[in-house]
Amino acid sequence: MLRIGRTNSAASIPSSSSINGGSEVASRRTNLLLAHSMAKPNSRTWAVLEPLAEEFDISNHFRTSIRSLSLSTVSDSETLIYAGTKSGALILFSVTPKYSNSCAFGSEPADSDASRIVSSSERVSLVRSVAVSVSPVVRLHVLRGIERVLVLCSDGFLYIVDSLLLLPAKRLTSLKGVSLIAKRIRSSESECSNLYERVDGNSGFTSSGQRFLQRLGGGIRTNGLKIKDSESPREESNCVFAALIGKRLILFEVVLGRPTGRSDRDIGDANESLLILKEVPCNEGVSTMVWLNDSIIVGTANGYYLVSCVTGENSLIFKLPEFSSPPCLKLLRKEWKVLLLVDRVGITVDAYGQPIGGSLVFHDIPTSVAEISAYVVVASSGRLKLYHRNTGSCIQKITFNGNEIESCIVSDEEDGSGDVIAIAVTNKVMCYQKLPCDEQIKDLLRRKNFKEAISLAEDLECAGEMSKDMLYFVHAQIGFLLLFDLQFEEAVNHFLQSETMQPSEIFPFVMKDPNRWSLLIPRNRYWAMHPPPAPFEDVIDDGLLAIQRATFLKKVGVETAVNDDFLLNPPSRSDLLESAVKHIIRYLEASRHKDLMSAVREGVDTLLMCLYRTLNSIDKMEKLASSANSCVVEELETLLDDSGHLRTLAFLYASKGMSSKALAIWRILGRNYSSHLLKDSSMDEGALDNNVVDISGKEMAAAEASKILEESSDQALVLQHLGWIADINQHFAIQILTSEKRSSQLSPDDIVRAIDPRKVEILQRYLQWLIEDQESCDPQFHSLYALSLAKSAIEVESTQNLDPGGSEDTKIYDLRTKSIFEQPIHERLQIFLQSSDLYDPEEVLDLIEGSELWLEKAILYRKLGQEAIVLRILALKLEDSEAAEQYCAEIGRSDAYMQLLDMYLDPQNGKEPMFKAAVRLLHNHGESLDPLQVLEALSSDVPLQIASETILRMLRARLHHHCQGQIVHNVSRALDIEARLARLEERSRHVQINDESLCDSCHARLGTKLFAMYPDDTIVCYKCYRRQGESTSVTGRNFKQDILIKPGWLVME
């Protein structure tokens, strides 16, 4: 089984082979899983409405039928239903909702009546009734602002009754012949015009009847009550209606007034009246009407029209086809739209009559339409159907008692805020309440309609009826249901969409209780729709057992809720377990990016490592272990050690700062690295070269160890592992010794002593780093580096002498890697000997004295000041005339060239004279030599034809130098005389100063003052002269930098 537990201080999870193995099936949860198993989705319907009580039959109390309905929510615990009967009575019902309504009005619930008749369910009760007229009641409107009910009867009169039916009905006689009324609904103040402004300006009275009413004593109310103009309201209330009388629309407001001398406390004495606002023309044959903002939409047998209550303009929206059903309008308060019915099609338009959105296609021709939440309720043929307002799909069907030929009336809350609707069929009243959001979603989840549940939750969240956290809750609930349905991919998809779900809720599916993180697991059963958490293997076993039982039941003809795909192609246990592990890994990986508590983060990373190990995902294991993680080492070290994932364990140790343990593992891998530890699971083992794998594997181990040691300041730890790393790759050893990542550097003396003498390159590179990069001035290190380079150069020289046919490449190569140095050893030795002055040259000379390293010897003798020996090595041993001449130039004495000439002419030790080198020296530097000394130095063996030309050139050069010197002497003398003469002339110049002469600087009169004159002829007083100085005149010219030259002066450039 897939478990994690503490056994001998280590977590225990089987390897990937356990996925293919069987396990003991736990039958204790099988029945529960059958109830919550992989169900195939039913039709895309769910319960939105539920009956509040049994139908209420009024035939037991009244011998009449119901013609109209209206609802009014009083409080969360009471809703009033008004039913208008064919006999002209108005009946009041009280309904107690099953669920609290958050949109209840602020009015107080009505007092219970002693004579109230309560149905068997005790939720719907008959309160009282009142006689309104002898004619049928065709329209009802509840005026909640003034606690009245406006009633329209078929006799064409309007009646008004108090909301509790405590007083007799009152007829409003000002309007007669009314066939239809509609209440004005305003979406916002900005979208509506104020009809009172037009009343005050008399622009709204267009008929003679209105003008007559205006002339009746200065008042504007009717029905026998008159008030002053100053009492006229200026803000429109919610009791404005449009009444259809023939082909006219009368716009009026229902208002309350009190006769003089009556107390305000006596509500029963309040007089209701109508305030006539305007009259506009209308179409003939109007049977339905809705008033939204400034538009009155009416329906006739010919089509739908839009009438403006401001301008009275009448325009056609669209015509109805012939032989169509009667027109029907329904105001959708949620979206401030109007639904226009054409047979079975509902077209949605805005307040301007423009179609908006898609159309609703109903199954039957509606006889009555209502709105509740996001649904349109349609009553027809003895059935009630709910259609989603946005998608147009039928969500719920309700069949109630009654013949299909009987007319149905469905009514909702006028302001669209209620959750209760009422249905009347002849003499029966039925009430339905919208289920709360969670109950609707639960109903869908019980039937496994997960997509519909999420769609519903998202719609509710967009409509503001559900919080964002509740949507996350639904996602998590669906995820757990899918998880127990063995649909792991879809389950994790929902988990990822739930931001409130905690990753610790997944822990029980991966590890058994008790464990380190048991107290972190939230004890949240959600809606108790799925079994309690259990390890994946138990969930899969129980699910497979449920599939087996469902298969058996289907064979005997019993339908089950198990998915057909599972029945036709049952999944294997190993595939399910692998799928579960993969997708839970996906969820835990996403959870790592969340802001979690440290304990939860530890659980996520530790379980993630365990699941990686179950799938043998070596790359992911090593990536997690080598990066910043919160894995608990105690839970994983034994587990990884037993399964052979030593690299992962080493990475984990290193990430937790346990460098010693990590290096110990890398040392084991570096010394005995088997190919299977390196081989990727996707690679073919037979396709690998064992030697290549072994070498690269060891180098990988050494590379990882070097990364740890590069940052470690523990000198003992570095020296402990430096040896085996150097044996594998010297580059890594150098990186460790020369690393600047550590906080404090290692002791150079200890490092030099600890380096294996056989690892010459490592010692040289470390000393080079100390001298060049760290700028060490310790003579000991400089001498040691020089001696080491010299020894290596001697070894290379001896190797080349033994193999004279070999190449002259002096690079040092390791057996398996390239040389640490790119420059040849001789070049490195020569550069260091020339650049450093801190080593002991005599000690190095003693080492290379018997070798053929002549250039190195020359450098050392030069350090010691042995010029003659240096010249002899350069001229005679190396035969480098150019270097010898350059060295003579550096010495800077003429006798150095003469000494070099003597060496060329008399090399000694039986060597032939170097006449060509001597001629070259005379040719290049003959002018620096004395001809007599040269002639004395030339032996009689020198051929005359070789020396004559050179000697002749020397003599000519001497003569040329003599003549050139005389010319320079004479010219210099002439310049000196000319300069003296010019100075004398300047000093002997006379300047005439009179009373009008001014100082060129301060412009003061000179008079008898002391003055000075500059070479550019500017004159200043002595005071300005001291301020300006003797080198800078008033013009700003500096004669020391910008020399003045006058015509006639002799100037030589």
From TrEMBL:
Please give the InterPro entries that the UniProt record associates with this protein: Clathrin_H-chain/VPS_repeat (IPR000547), CNH_dom (IPR001180), Vam6/VPS39/TRAP1 (IPR032914), VPS39/TGF_beta_rcpt-assoc_1 (IPR019452), VPS39/TGFA1_Znf (IPR019453), WD40_repeat_dom_sf (IPR036322)
What keywords appear on the UniProt entry? Receptor
Which segments carry the region annotation Disordered? Answer: 1-23
Residue ranges constituting the CNH domain according to the UniProt record: 63-413
Each CHCR repeat occupies one of these ranges, namely: 736-913
Can the keyword Calcium be found in this entry's annotation? no
> What name does this protein carry?
Transforming growth factor-beta receptor-associated protein 1
What species is this protein from?
A: Momordica charantia
- Lineage in the entry? Eukaryota, Viridiplantae, Streptophyta, Embryophyta, Tracheophyta
As recorded in Swiss-Prot or TrEMBL, the protein's gene is named LOC111012580
